Amino acid sequence: MRLLIAYLNTLSPYDLQMKNFTKYVQNTNSLHGLWNRGDTIVVGASGGRDSMCLLHVLSHIANKEGLTIVAAHVNHGLRGASSDRDQKIVEDFCVQLNIPCETLVVDASKKGQSEDQWRTIRRDFFARVSSDYNAHSVALGHHKNDHAETLLLHLLRGSGLSGLSNMSVKSAQTIGGSPVVLIRPLLGVKREDISIYCTDYSIEFGEDETNSSTDFTRNKIRMMLLPYLEKNYNTEIIDTLSRTAQSIGDDYAFLSENVRLSYVNDENSVSFDKQEFLALSPSAQRFFLRSAVGSLINEGSYGGFGLIEEFRKALLSKKNKNQTIQTNDLIFAVKNATVEITLAI
User: Fold this and answer.
1) Which of 67, 120, 134, 199 gives the lowest tally of CB atoms within 10 Å of its CB?
2) Is the pLDDT of residue 180 over 80?
């Protein structure tokens, strides 16, 4: 196992020849247990370079390991003819690979939703397809550059461990009320390696025109900030940031498994014992409060670190009096020995 870990940490998929790409993905599975022989995997296929590469490499591995691959595509209809083109690319490719393809065409009335809402629509659809096919996991095409970009994006916006860890090779989540295992077999692969793979295998894919617009912060990071950091500070910045995100993710997982505090959680509130909370370390206190608030509202919609510290200050106060803090979304109340965080409905 140690030799395999060392191999994955040092080897770029193309250090030898193109054929090692598939082997690299198989070794990633061996290290992280992404699938077992005979599993069914739903692949989120947008029609872009990354997901088409993932669809191709998993279909190749499927022949060797008895996997069943199912593609799931969402046509948001946001880019007119380009959206329809991407749908056709995915569906035609699935015919070529002889794998089933499930497509969701989003109703025109839903246009204008936020990126978070679009993401929820995609994830809910993937979870539904996964349930319909009794799949063991949903595979996403995120790669090492995505990992690095997302770390910087969250760092610049301000984020806790959950945001900074941002992605993992394998994670169990609840999506649309259903348990789903998300896997990212290409998370250790760089964007340029994926491009080479698609070129060598003549894989058709669609280009999202909005990816070249610097109106979006993520695009600025990819097109301007990362090249600047690579040129002037660290030629291996992508690898460095990806490793950092992975390390933070490991720490976040450790806290998730070891921060223990009994609490009552329903749809609109979280309540817990004040003295039990005060017995935790400051790091564990912050982690618990973020988790509690995050169970009620999206992390990006509250005051972040400043609000968490305001909550901690109220709890650490030596004054024996009830306290209430109210934001646009939450009501934080300390009542004797009980603490309650409630949605401000």
Assistant:
1) 134
2) yes
Return the DSSP state at 132.
H
Contact 97, 68 (CB under 8 A): no
More confident of the two residues 176 and 239: 239
Per-residue pLDDT, averaged over 120-128, amounts to 90
User: pLDDT: is 7 or 13 the higher one?
Assistant: 7
Cα separation, 90 vs 45, whole angstroms: 7
N- to C-terminal Cα separation, the chain:
52
Cα–Cα–Cα angle for 236, 166, 12, rounded to 5 degrees: 35
Q: Which helix (H) or strand (E) holds 43?
A: strand 40-44
Beta carbons within 10 angstroms of residue 345's beta carbon: 6
CA angle centred on 79, ends 73 and 205, rounded to 5°? 50
Secondary structure (3-state) at 105: strand
Instruction: Answer yes or no: are the C-beta atoms of 45 and 71 closer than 8 Å.
Output: yes
Q: Are strands 137-139 and 40-44 parallel, antiparallel or unpaired?
A: parallel
Q: Do 275 and 293 meet the contact criterion of CB atoms below 8 Å apart?
A: no
Rounded to whole angstroms, the Cα distance separating 148 from 152 reads: 6
Helices (H), 201-325: 217-220, 226-232, 237-258, 274-278, 282-294, 304-316
Kindly report each contact of residues 287-295 with a partner whose C-beta sits within 8 Å and lies 24 or more positions away, as own/partner: 287/160, 287/161, 287/255, 287/259, 288/259, 288/261, 290/160, 290/161, 290/162, 291/256, 291/259, 292/263, 292/265, 292/341, 293/330, 293/341, 294/162, 295/265, 295/270
Q: What angle do CA 174, 177, 180 make, to 5 degrees?
A: 35
Top pLDDT among 341 and 1 is at: 341
Compute, in degrees rounded to 10, the torsion defined by CA atoms 253, 254, 256, 259: -170
Quick one: 187 exposed, middle or buried, by C-beta within 10 A (0-12, 13-18, 19+)?
buried
* Mean pLDDT of the residues in the chain: 86
Coil, helix or strand for 339?
strand
- Do residues 77 and 108 lie in contact, with contact meaning Cβ atoms separated by under 8 Å? yes
- Ordered by where they begin, the domains of the chain are 2-249 (3.40.50.620), 260-343 (3.30.465)
